[in-house]
Write a structure and sequence with these properties.
The chain has 189 residues and is of the alpha/beta class. It has a single domain, classed as Rossmann fold (3-Layer(aba) Sandwich), CATH 3.40.50.880. The chain is built from five helices and twelve strands. The strands form three sheets. It has a seven-stranded mixed sheet with strand order 2-1-3-4-12-11-10. A three-stranded mixed sheet has the order 5-6-9. The longest helix is centred in the first third of the chain and has 10 residues. The radius of gyration is 15 Å and the shape is globular. The N and C termini lie close together (11 Å).
Length: 189
């Protein structure tokens, strides 16, 4: 059975655990480096990227995470997770894992009051649109080599992408009843 670690420092980690458990996957909360042992994949949830980044540093997780991801560990980052996995952000920070060649703009759609939901076409998930929840969400400003855009808004703004073992979304698939993004991630393992 696959065992998926869920970074549990701050944010929507409980919701990811719930979706993964409904898909029949064993989960493990990750707060310390030794809790990375034996996992087959990792989810970095949405939340507050600066807070998660500071806690990753405080708990000595940055280097082990970089090594595991560079070594091929499949990782799925949603919202703040996407920010932390990006090689570049428009608001430079010291917490980037640099795992996917994209530049991300934090809070790109505005403040909390500007959060929204929309239907997205995501061909890798099939013909049925995916209901996406954007909460103080980032967007992808620049796509680098080897990065495939999986979904974009109606105006063409990229909001989901994949590069090798890294999957990122600007939105929160864990907050919907649609488990297709998590199932797609599990197929990456």
């Amino acid at each position: 059975m696959k065992k998926i670690g869920v970074l549990a420092l701050q944010g929507a980690f409980v919701e990811h655990v719930s979706v993964l458990n409904r898909l029949g996957v064993e989960t493990s909360l990750v707060r310390l480096p030794q809790e990375l042992d034996g996992i087959d994949g990792l989810v970095i949830p949405g939340g507050e990227s600066t807070t998660i980044g500071k806690l990753m540093r405080a708990y000595s997780l940055v280097s082990p995470l970089k090594e595991l991801i560079a070594g091929g560990l499949p990782v799925f980052g949603t919202c703040a997770g996407m920010i932390l996995l990006a090689k570049q952000t428009t608001d430079p920070n010291d917490y980037s894992l640099g795992a996917v060649d994209i530049r991300v703009r934090r809070n790109a759609f505005g403040r909390q009051v500007d959060s929204f939901e929309t239907e997205l076409s995501v061909p890798v998930l099939g013909d049925t649109p995916f209901h996406a929840v954007f909460i103080r969400a980032p967007w992808i400003e620049k796509i680098g080599d080897g990065v495939k855009v999986l979904a974009q808004l109606h105006d063409g703004t990229p909001v989901a992408a994949r590069s090798k073992n890294v999957l990122v979304t600007a939105f929160h698939p864990e907050l919907t009843g649609d488990m297709r993004f998590h199932a797609y991630f599990l197929k990456m393992i």
